[in-house]
Amino acid sequence: MKQISILGCGWLGLPLAKTLIAKGNSINGSTTSENKLPILKDAGINPFLVTLESESISENISDFLVESEILIIDIPPKLRAVDPNSEKKAFVEKIKNLIPFIEKSTVKKVLFVSSTSVYGDNNDFVTEETKPNPDTESGKQLVLAEKLLQENQNFETTILRFGGLIGEDRHPIKFLAGKENLENPDAPINLIHQNDCIGVIEEIINQSKWNEVFNAVAPFHPTREAFYSQKAIEMNLSEPKFSSEKSNIKKVISSEKIESVLNYKFDLDDY
Prior knowledge:
11 strands; Rossmann fold; alpha/beta; 271 residues; 7-stranded parallel sheet; 17% strand; single chain
């Protein structure tokens, strides 16, 4: 049994916690919503109300980390301030505030959930050796946050860069159905299902794959037009209409390292 703290029990963190508990682990889970504390408790999670800000952090952060060997950080950058400049480094500052508490705790392994958005849209074939080149503010802050954690010698950090997240309750076709003149019809998709997100994290923990970087995207890359048109038919939704203009975006995220190093098999039936 392992003691694990999950910072951010949201769309991914909550089902991840439930899966890890079912495998015999003890989980401390955080939320920023007091209303969600009973939900975490009912799931068998030790619930903590933790608010991570660019200037401060909740007083109970130490209790949240106590006795845990592994910390999973699963919080999005959320750069939505009225004044964009005020949020320029907000996420990075949050991670900076968190690090001293990790250093003082029993945590020796950190898994940081990042995104393949750190690569931008300029690459044709992307592996973990590809240099990040983010073209969004959130991507830029993720790169800086990754570096802060990786360079710290007090704990080992693995970076897990997920592609577009999908699940039973979360699929892009629900927003694209019936829309017209959608861009990039021939751009390849780079998606990962919630079940595979959890499966990959489990394997990293079980196999102790630390001080690594993994791109986590299913080895399934049809064009946007082909994929979303088919999904609309399967889900009885209006088919989206795509622009006839060809796309310059040919980015394909390789999952070869996940498959070879972790020996992980994606369940393509979920896609």
